[in-house]
Amino acid sequence: MGSVSLKIGDGTARFKRATLCSSAVNILMLFSVITTNLFALYAFTFSPKQHLDNPFHHPHRNISLISQHVSLIIKEIDSSQRKLAQMEKELLGYDTLDLSRPNLAPELKLFLQHHQLPLGKDSRTGITEMVASVGHSCEKSADLLSQYMSYKVSGPCPDDWSLAQKLILKGCEPLPRRRCFAKTVPKPGLTSLPVSLWKPVSDKIVTWSGLGCKNFNCLNSKKLSRDCVGCFNLTNGYETQKYVKARSKNDFVMDDVLALGSGGIRIGFDIGGGSGNFAARMAERNVTVITNTLNVDAPHSEFIAARGLFPLFLSLDHRFPFYDNVFDLVHATSGLDVEGRPEKLEFLMFDLDRILRAGGLFWLDNCYCSDDEKKRALTRLIERFGYKKLKWVVGEKTDAAGSGKPQVYLSAVLQKPVRI
């Protein structure tokens, strides 16, 4: 079973599975409790021999002796607690970012320093200082983080967005803020909605640094992911028909799904939205959609923004920065296929459930299942939430890589219940 160690106030946290070392901590704590109890028993039962032989001994001397023993016991307990706390931090792998280490960027040290509130303690929250927020895994990537924070204050920021994304993918999220000016790219030719939704985006208005392709023709000739094959082509190909015309039983038509929401779909959240075509089709139907994306192998964020849509540059490991029960619709494609332990998918699903309102729709769109066991595991996980199955289709598609091996996909539209 996993163990969690948190430290509130410095924006850091560590998560590690329990090990034999953590069991050693429990054994040591048990030994400490037994030892202190023996000390206490000894203190309250001990009486010097001379006092027993002397019928005129003074009771207050015994009391004084007991007090001394109790003081020693308290000191021993306090020392043991400090040692145990330090051992637990070391065994669980928890530590804060060491600001005293050499070659650490001065800007990083300045950002991470605690700053006292100018008017003292806040009466509502009890907070006494401002603490910078930084990802829990930044300590593991301290050299890269220091490189990211090495810049000229009030000068131009280095062209290092790919370094920032690398840190994010390593768990260093959120990144510290910087006091420099980001590189600006002229964006001529931008048009207003709704024309901008399907107008081809110019190669010149996006940043190509750190990417293999340097134009959209190159991107459209590659399979970037299961959900992005030619997805930057807004004039030809299947992207112009996606969500409007179904190619298989796993493809749901958008208007049919919206009808299941009884007209109550106004705002949505799209995970793994590629180039933003889902958000574009929703915008045509007066539904505002935020697209969660990273610039993996392509300028997804800039492309989506150029279409007049809302990109959110955030990894799936980050807690979604939205309040509870605010979205009418959550749409997820194969981007939901997170690698690693099942617990990782559980954390993601619970956070999606948190931001979806009661009665809202969860649209699982062609979610790739590598085998039947994974399909069953995903099905069991979904059923734990008690959603109403409005649509549920399991189908097979031929492997696009040319192996001819059929692949299993799950598509579903689920309605979140009202929980009391």
Automatic annotation (TrEMBL):
It is found in: Endomembrane system; Membrane. GO terms for cellular component: endomembrane system; membrane. The keyword Zinc does not apply. Keywords: Glycoprotein, Membrane, Methyltransferase, Signal-anchor, Transferase, Transmembrane, Transmembrane helix. Belongs to the methyltransferase superfamily. SUPFAM superfamilies: S-adenosyl-L-methionine-dependent methyltransferases (SSF53335). This is Methyltransferase type 11 domain-containing protein. It holds the Pfam family Methyltransf_29. It comes from Gossypium stocksii. Coiled coil: none annotated.
